[in-house]
Known about the structure:
- Helix content is 75%, strand content 0%.
- With 149 residues, the protein is mainly alpha-helical.
- The longest helix is centred in the middle third of the chain and has 29 residues, at 73-101.
Amino acid sequence: MRARTFDWSEIGSFAAVGLCAYLADLALFVWLRGPLGWDPLPAKAVAFLAGCTVAYAGNALGTYKNQAAQASRLRRYGIFFAVNAAGALLQLLCLALSHYGLGLTSPHADTVSGSVVGMALATCLRFWGTRTLVFRTRRQAGTHGTWTG
């Protein structure tokens, strides 16, 4: 199977959508925690769900709008949510490894491991998962190749 190529406009569009989703997540989290006084975990869960929804809509209506649908919107959103949850877990894993495994416990080390290294790895995972699992074309889905190549 030949891999689908991408161009810089795809990456730029994906990044712009991701930035909008991040800002929606952040703004909602701050609003829920601050003026509404929600506890941090429910506030983050709702903000994460909102951010995923913004990212899905942006990618479906923007970045990958010309991709033929392989599955229903609900199924694609479920896969998209799973890919994003995997990215969030990867960020937490980077933070846990650095903080508890390597003993790098300063706030600066936590920021670098969770929000720089973890975010970079999670973004790569999200980009790959979004383009190959969520918004793949019918042709891609049916092209599995043979065992002989």
